[in-house]
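Sample entry (260 residues):
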Amino acid sequence: MFARYVKREQTPYSFETAAEMMNAALRRKLGFRPPRPVLALALARTALETERWQALFNHNWGNVKAGETYRGAYCTHESCEALASELTWFIPEGELDRRDGSVVGKVWLVPPGHPHTRFRAYADALDGALAYVELASSSSHSDTWDALLLGDAVGLVEALTARGYFKRNVLRYARPLVALQEEFAYRLARLPAAEFAVPERDAVRALLAPDPVVLAEIAASAGVQAAPEREAETRRRPSHTELVASNAEVPSSEPPGRVA
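Predicted structure, serialized as tokens:
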């Protein structure tokens, strides 16, 4: 790995701290103060997936993994992965046969730790919030980012569903997301709001289990769409002879016969 190992540290936030940091991160990204529904939805999603920011380590707002090519700091901690068939539990030393069970298979040294237990680590709450927003706004997450900017919790869930999430009941994720957004919108307006009870982090990860049928359909659709594009590109692409002939007619700084 290229990343630098650091010790795991639990970094819980209060609502006030989370709101301040996420507001600053979104404001820096957007160039203006985020509308209240947008900030409330960003807070709702992170709160739902981290037990209201209590199951949050090293300021990693989204529990984002540190892959082999990641450059930065990372820590290791236990995790529950919603794989295609069932939930699988991991500790830094390896895969478990069950929750709180024994390691099966390869035993990993720490560091680096089992790949499923390597998570990105940040210096402080703002650093983590900025990294979270940067990832959320990347091209690979454009559908959920668009929904976030509309303050559309239902649209965000629909985008996740279209990507193959939610093998299990999607409403068990959607309902608390909508409820948290509503609660936080009230609190951001300094109005009284009942606190919604969120499920534990691992239960939420279970809800996010990928649907293998949908994933297969997405992969098949991508293949079908790519084939005609490749064929059309092949037809459009001029031959080497054509390129050389074309270059001979147009003044160029390249040596004669060279394909730029």
